[in-house]
Amino acid sequence: MQSAEGVSRASRLPRYRVRWNGEPMVAWAFLAPALLLLVLLAVYPLGYALYLSMTTAQIGVPGRFVGAANFIRLARTEIFSLTLWNTVWYTAVAVFAKLVLGLTLALVLAQRVPGMKWIRGAVLVPWVAPIALSVLAWTWMFDSTYSVFNWVLMRLHLVAAPVAWLGVPALARFAVVLVNVWAGLPFFGITFLAGLVTIPRELYEAATVDGVGALGQFRRLTLPLLRPVLATVVLFSVVMTSSDFATIFVLTRGGPMNTTQVLATLAYRLGLATGDLGTGAAISLYLFPILIAVTAIQARLMRRSWQW
Amino acid sequence: MVGSPARRAIWAYAGAAPFVVFALFPFAWMLITSVKKDAELYDLAQNPFLIRTGITWDHYRFLFEQTAFPLWLRNSVLVAVSSTAASVVLALLAAYALARMRFRYAEGVSTFIFVVYLMPTTLLFLPLARLVSLLHLANTLWSLIVTYPAFMVPFITWMLAAYLAAIPKDLEESALVDGCTRLGALRRIVLPLARPGIITATLFGFTLAWSEFIYALTFISTTNLKTVTAGVVVDLIRGDVFYWGSLMAGALTASLPVVVLFSLFLDHYVSGLTAGAVKG
Predict the structure, then answer these.
(1) Predicted TM-score (pTM) of this structure
(2) Of A15, A52, A190, the CB nearest to B270
(3) Pick from A292, B69, B251, B255: CA 20 to 30 A from residue B100's CA?
(4) What is the pLDDT of residues A156-174, one digit of tens each?
């Protein structure tokens, strides 16, 4: 009896009610093209990478199944452990530098003075320009013979002979981090700025009334309230920095003696230049755990501010 | 800390100056290098900041007349425009469904799109290279037009869904009550309201596609078919000889389109950047 009543009530409902009932179908129809594309061009390749990584595939040769042999063999080679360590070091130092400098930049950009809009625009340019091309300018600035930095340092009598920026391991490592920081800093600065401006000014006024100094306000007000933004940006940056390719490929190609080699450049070298697809795929898959960890943390952080 | 407005301004400018110099110096260096004569460029005794023997356009002439640079620019425009157009259409449909419609697994779909959005291109380039050659797309511009949306769609969907969710539903709902279809409501009501968001998404998509490097480097080997990033980095360097004048001319010229777009739509970029992360 109840169900019959339900049906008769439904038939009396206005027309749009019917439309809402068909909504899931429409929603899936709207989503289908995008999801299909992502399955074909992201999920399937990921699965394929997993498969390749467990074979001896070469370019043009299918190869045979070897299980985890590639991963195990890799872990025992010196070049791979060096590369893994380089990637961790590169990511940790660059992300930390971007965090500290990005906070400073955001505090500077938050000042309300004439022309600040253009200053914000100017510091964002490295982020907009194609990274592979701007790194080319850095390669030229670090040139072993014609480096502009060398000219300045020698003019100031800080060094006696030209410094081989990209030829000495420690300096090359410094150079790749510097260039990564240069390219990534704008994103940190602007995103932190967006977080800063959402903090109510009254809080600062109240703190001033209570006699809290500028440093105390920063430590006890700005930092805690900015924490969600800081966390999100750092997590993103960990993924982007650990998988960086262009900076290192253009600047050092992983040299000298693989001291700036990271997972992405080694995967390219072994997978394409040498043609050893199986090993190359295994190397890039070492990035996957980072991705999983970041996604898990990010999903937990976002659940609170989920909008839709 | 709180001084007169003038003193505060001076402190702000003094604080900003190092960041501005740091950000812009490489571009200034591209410009100086690209217009300097070779004799002066490679003269160690000269002050590299100055141009003493006059400006030359030789490096640009060489780039445009003796290399495939004009073709690379054309290829980049073709690839960036078509992959952006396709991505914005796909992403708009998906974003509209996520922002407005109720269906099971909506949260699962959002999470899935978010995970793909985080997936770095360096994780996928090897299997995609194989896939591209299986589809007989290797060494064609299609290999890029087809694969770029894989990283653009998640990002643009994310951005547009947030934008659409902020638009009031009333107008759309009355249109639906009046018998408008979802697609009709999207086209006639949402599209005009969401125009700023769509412009931002398009700009970001174009910038991403224009800057892409590893796919362009991997999927295309013929010089004339390269995009400008891969072309300048790989094909302008012959053996161990670096023609720094034309390299810098190429890097600067190829950066200009996106930098000009950026300066024209500064506010769009800043609002978009804070809506989602792309690189950093």
Answers:
(1) 0.89
(2) A190
(3) A292
(4) 989 888 899 999 999 999 9
Looking at the structure of chain A, the number of domains it has is 2
Report helix, strand or coil for B166.
coil
The answer to whether the beta carbons of residues B114 and B201 sit under 8 Å apart is: no
ipTM of predicted complex: 0.90
| Euclidean distance between CA atoms B117 and A291, whole angstroms | 11
By the 8 A CB rule, do B246 and B62 touch?
Answer: yes
Chain A residue whose CA is closest to B88:
A34
Asked whether residue B29 falls in the same domain as residue B111, the answer is: no
Size of chain A, expressed as the number of residues it contains: 308
Of chain A, the percentage scoring pLDDT greater than 70 comes to 91
Query: What mean pLDDT comes out for the span A5-31?
Result: 60
Judgement on whether residues A27 and A74 belong to the same structural domain of the protein: no
- Helix (H), strand (E) at residue A96: helix A78-109
Size of interface A-B (CB pairs under 8 A): 321
Residue of B nearest to A91 (CA): B280
Interior/surface letters A266-281, b for 16+ CB within 10 angstroms, e for the rest: bbbbbbbeeebbbbbb
Within-domain flag for B280: no
Half-sphere exposure of A245 (CA within 13 A, CB side): 23
Q: Domain limits at B36?
A: 1-56
Q: Please tell me which of the candidates B20, B228, B279 has its beta carbon nearest to residue A187.
A: B279
Peptide bond into A256 cis (omega under 30): yes
User: Residue A284's Cα: distance from chain center in Å?
Assistant: 15
Nearest to A137 among B30, B217, B278 (CB): B30
Element (H, E) at B17: helix B5-34
How far is A10 from chain B, CA to nearest CA, in Å?
16
